[in-house]
Every structure is written in C-alpha cells, then in structure tokens.
Amino acid sequence: RIVAWLCGCAVLLFATSSGIGRYMPAMFSMHMAAHMMLSMLAPVLLVLGAPVTLALRALPAAGRSDPPGPREWLLAALHSRVSRFLTNPIIATVLFVAGFYGLYFGGIFDVAASSHAAHLAMNLHFLLTGYLFYWVVIGVDPTPRPIPPLAKLGVVFASLPLHAFFGVLLMGTDVVLAGSFYESLKLYWHTDLIGDQRLGG
C-alpha cells in the first residue's frame, strides 16, 4: 500500500510538474496525456494505497466525554448521505465519464483553455472523479455502499466503450477545440492543431 501510494504521488507530480505539465496548457495532446494520467493512473495507485483505512487505524478515537475528533469526522463523512450518493456506482461512473464529454464537447474547454485557474480546476476534477470511480470499483477502502465484485467488473466494462467512443470522436472531428486560444500562442513549432488534437484523441 505504501508503494502504491508513493507511486500515485509520483504520477501526480510527473503529470503536473514535468515536461508534460509544462506543455499541457500549450498543446492539446499534452493536455490529454496529463488528463489520462490524472484520471486513470494516479487515482488507481492512490486508491490502492488505502488512505481511509490507514487514517481509521492511526487516528485515536475520542473519549466519551471528549468532543468528536478527526477520526469521528472521517467516519461521519464516510457514512453521510453525500458519500452514499457519490459512491453509487451509476453516479460515480457518470461523474467519471460524462465530465469530459461535457468539458470538451460542451464548449467549456474553449472558454477555460486560456485560464490557469481553470486548468488547475480541470486537473482537480480529473483526479477527484477518477479517485471516486476507482474507490468504488477497486474497493480497498471501506465504502458506504459496498457492491459485489461482479457488479464492480460490470461498472468497469460499462465505462470502457464510453471512453473509446470519446477518443474516436476526438480523432474524427475537424473542429479544433479552443482553436483561437492555441492560435493566439503563435508557437512556430506547433502549427498542426488538428493533427495534435487527433493525437490527443
């Protein structure tokens, strides 16, 4: 679990602070490479690290006469209605998959591409929705809504064609997403915007 967690942190660092992170705002293909690492690789490793289980074992329980401490807050959050709603397999899958359809094909990316704060928000969205999805389907940590292994497998296989279809749509489109922003950068070595977008797909 320690190795998995540290590898997840390393992937997160690499995706945001290496050359990929450096070129992510300027090239759609690098943006998508970081997107994949943040939503599909780092969350798997972080979930396998079982941070909730570690916290529940390590944090001391509050005494009967003491106010609730971090362990009690964590348990309350874990069993809250919000947590039960978000860990519903359908909700977790919709957040994981529909988010990037809405982002890229709903016009949000065209508006957000020029904003550094929006890029940070996108990174956070990819990481959190990926973590939620893999928390549900890998299930090392306890979840408020446990599901049987066969259902977890079904959730994974249900999401696969949606990801594949998204990639096919990107590779087949003739419209450059956030084209005006990428053109405004005037990078002499990056002129084939539609080719780079298809590479991203």
How many β-strands, per DSSP?
Answer: 0
Helix fraction bin: over 70%
What are the secondary-structure elements, in order, as H or E? HHHHHHHHHHHH
Q: How far apart lie the N and C ends?
A: 32 Å
Number of helices: 12
Global geometry: elongated
Biggest sheet overview: none
Mean pLDDT: 89
CA-atom Rg in angstroms: 19 Å
Description:
- It is elongated, with a radius of gyration of 19 Å.
- Helix 1 packs antiparallel against helix 3 (28-48) and helix 7 runs antiparallel to helix 9.
- The chain has helices spanning 2-17, 19-23, 28-48, 51-58, 70-78, 81-86, 89-105, 108-112, 116-138, 149-172, 179-185, 193-200.
- It is mainly α and 201 residues long.
Which features would summarize this protein structure in a list?
12 helices; elongated; mainly alpha; 201 residues
How do you describe this structure in short?
With about 200 residues, the chain is mainly α.
Which helices and strands, and how do they pair?
Blueprint: H1 2-17, H2 19-23, H3 28-48, H4 51-58, H5 70-78, H6 81-86, H7 89-105, H8 108-112, H9 116-138, H10 149-172, H11 179-185, H12 193-200
